[in-house]
Design brief:
membrane, mainly alpha, single chain, transmembrane, globular
Length: 62
């Protein structure tokens, strides 16, 4: 469910970059695809870290 909500949010963001250059569009779709796969895996695979867990792992020493 979270992955779907992130996907819907990204589609709404697409409207903002619709008239931008093709490099921005490619970057958007790459980021969108990576985040969609990441969030889907985090919801389906029990050992896969969520984005919040990843931030804690990487920045927990601060």
């Amino acid at each position: 469910m979270l992955a779907i909500s992130f996907a819907l949010f990204a589609v709404f963001e697409w409207r903002q970059i619709k008239n931008k250059s093709s490099n921005n569009k490619k970057a958007f779709w790459w980021l969108f695809s990576i985040l969609l796969v990441w969030n889907t895996a985090a919801n389906v695979i029990p050992w896969w870290p969520t984005p919040n867990q990843l931030i804690i792992y990487l920045l927990g020493w601060m």
